[in-house]
Structure prediction request, 80 residues.
Amino acid sequence: MTFINKKVLQNLYGFIAIGLIFIFMFGLIFDNFYLRFIGNSLVFYLLYLLQNGEKETIKIFTIAFLPFFLITWFYTLTNV
Prediction:
């Protein structure tokens, strides 16, 4: 799994991304309001991948991130 890699924790962006994911996971115990941290953690993880990632990893992450981005974008447009 990508998030268990020690190189992720040694980089600033990777460390922030993992921290935000843990905040989200523990925050679900109290409230669903912590869902907003998912987008931030994905952006920080993308910055980590751009700095240290391989080409294939960046392609897979982009393909996996695209549905999340489109749903968020559509949700934002419908609530304007």
The longest helix spans residues 55-78. DSSP finds four helices and no strands in the chain. The mean pLDDT is 78. Helices lie at 6-10, 12-27, 37-52, 55-78.
